[in-house]
Amino acid sequence: MRITNSLMSQSFLSNLNKNTSNVFRYQEQLSSMKQVNRPSDDPLKVSKILDLKNEIKQNAQYKTTIDDSIDFTNVQDSALASATDSLQRISVLTQQAANGTYNTEDRQAIKTEIENEVESMLDSLNTSFGGRYIFGGQKSNVKPFTINREDGNFSIEYSGTGDMVSGNTSKEISRGVSVELQTDGNRLFEKDGVNIGQMFNELFTALGENDTELLGGDLLERIEKFMNNTVNTRTNIGAIQNRLTAAKDRNESEYLNLESALSTNQDIDLAETYMNYSMEMVAYQASMNMGTRILQTNIMDYVR
């Protein structure tokens, strides 16, 4: 093979271009602190980086849902604690009213206090969180519990979803994993086919009629059942809180793993990259030095 000046120049320019490209690549990596800056650098790695970023975004969305659900159940627990206190007070007042030593005026005073406790209990259960009623079922924008006193009868009306249609709210806390928040308020006040509003109506009637036998017997038992039902609901919500807390721990662990994987695929090893950059700069400078000797030859050199 004949080596000509033209061939030497072409070879030099090709090598110089290659060295320049390598220097530029490492300069760009050092400037951006990223291994790849465009899809053409490494299509497979770029695809993996994009997948990891999507996973991190989804992980952050699940974290927001979990945190919101934990706060939601904390509000529910507080509301049920207040409702339980009211029912306990109503139970104590009913026991007192069943005492034969109490007269009509005493029982009327007890009736007034019980009515206030019922209203206080419903105020707690009508609590809203973030613009959503915590026991409104699927109708979280509608006040769930209201008192109706038409025609001298006392009743509690529930405006949320429940009964035949599940009023619980499902939340997805990770891919393919959901948890049901206990938002069906209808289940709180239905026990053995009896609505708590009907029970209170009978309680107020018994107080007006001084029916101590009914007050100290069936009515007191039903109050205890509704109170136990509220406590059981609170227990279920506590179990959900524990599950959400465990899900939050897993979510945070997954986030750290995803960030670590993203850093491995996306970020540079600064020491290694700088060393490679220095080596490429040496090669580039050597090429430039050789180029000044190759390209300085001109036609006058052949005339001499």
State the gist of this model.
The protein has 304 residues and is mostly helical.
Task: Name the CATH homologous superfamily of the domain at 70-230.
Answer: f41 fragment of flagellin, N-terminal domain
The string of secondary-structure elements, in order, is HHHEEEEEEEEHHHH
Given the structure, what is the number of helices?
7
Tell me the overall shape.
rod-shaped
The fraction of residues assigned to DSSP E strands is: 5-15%
Kindly provide the radius of gyration, computed on alpha-carbon positions and rounded to a whole number of angstroms: 38 Å
What is the tally of beta strands?
A: 8
Outline the fold blueprint.
Elements: H1 5-32, H2 43-97, H3 104-125, E1 128-129, E2 132-133, E3 145-148, E4 155-158, E5 169-174, E6 177-181, E7 190-191, E8 194-195, H4 196-209, H5 212-266, H6 270-295, H7 299-303
Helix pairs in contact: 1-6, 2-3, 2-5, 3-4, 4-5
Family: Belongs to the bacterial flagellin family.
GO biological process, one term: bacterial-type flagellum-dependent cell motility
Main location: other
Task: Note the main attributes of this structure.
304 residues, mainly alpha, f41 fragment of flagellin, N-terminal domain, two-stranded antiparallel sheet, two-stranded antiparallel ribbon, 7 helices, 8 strands, rod-shaped
Describe what this molecule looks like in 3D:
With 304 residues, the protein is mainly alpha-helical. The chain has a domain at 70-230: f41 fragment of flagellin, N-terminal domain (Up-down Bundle). The chain is built from seven helices and eight strands; from the N terminus they run αααββββββββαααα. The protein has helices at residues 5-32, 43-97, 104-125, 196-209, 212-266, 270-295, 299-303; strands spanning 128-129, 132-133, 145-148, 155-158, 169-174, 177-181, 190-191, 194-195. β1 and β2 (132-133) form a beta hairpin. α4 (196-209) packs antiparallel against α5 (212-266). The chain is rod-shaped, with a radius of gyration of 38 Å. The chain starts with a helix and ends with a helix. Keywords: Bacterial flagellum, Cell projection, Cilium, Flagellum. Residues 221-302 form the Flagellin C-terminal domain. It holds the Pfam family Flagellin_N.
